Fold this protein.
Amino acid sequence: MEPGADSPVATEEPIRCAECETTLSEGQPRQETDGGTFCQPCFDRLTGEVQQAIAAQGEGINYPMALVGGLAGAALGVAVWWGFTVLTNIAFGLVAIVIGFATGKGVMILSGHKRHVNLQVLAIAISIAGFAYASYLVNRSFILEALAADGQAVALPLIPPPDLFYNVISAGFRAMDLVFLAIVIYEAWKIPAPIRVPTQ
Ligand SMILES: [Zn+2]
């Protein structure tokens, strides 16, 4: 506190720019925002920086790395869901949303922290494939277990041919799976979504 600042509170506090802390004299151009009051030069500079960042979010996207990140995220999500199912013996589909989350994060981070509709599409495609494969793994575990209890042995490969893949998935399909898939897609769509400038 400056000396003499303990004078009556009613005196007007000088308004300072929230960025450079220059005292704004009356009549001096200023911009009032939710983030505080700014002098005009600071406001213009900050606005320019934000616009630059918004424009840069979709530039120089590293697509090969985005693909790698998406696949790694999906693999992680699949492992989590499958692991959860095998450990708990419960096919709790809600855990599957980890796939959408991890895929979206993987795509965004390895693309160079970019956001673009192409990344959204990529994340959705990978997460749907991951969800389908995880469903296969989960159903496969239950089928193998049931057959083993019956004393039967059957080969269900980890990389199945398409018709077997389809049969195993549809054998365990329930309507709720569509809801979980929708959440997976939503997560994958939301995470790399471009930030838009609020129009004034
Ligand atoms: Zn300023």
